[in-house]
Specification:
Layout: H1 5-8, H2 11-19, H3 25-36, H4 54-62
Helix pairs in contact: 3-4
């Protein structure tokens, strides 16, 4: 039999769900923040309503 759609999801998808992130893209933003210090000096951010909202979720956790 073929693989189910759950089996096809990669490790970052599963990690995101386990850690409470909305999408796997949260890990990419965290990686970019670590490398380039994107949030240094940031006090406010604007959410432009992009789905699923994982970047806004990362920002809200980091800026607290």
């Amino acid at each position: 039999m073929g693989r189910s759609s759950k089996d096809k999801r990669d490790v970052y998808y599963r990690l995101a769900k386990e850690e409470g992130w909305r999408a796997r893209s949260a890990f990419k933003l965290l990686q970019l923040e670590e490398r380039f210090e994107l949030f240094r000096g940031v006090r406010r951010a604007v959410d432009l309503c992009a789905a699923p909202g994982s970047w806004s979720q990362v920002l809200s956790r980091r800026l607290r």
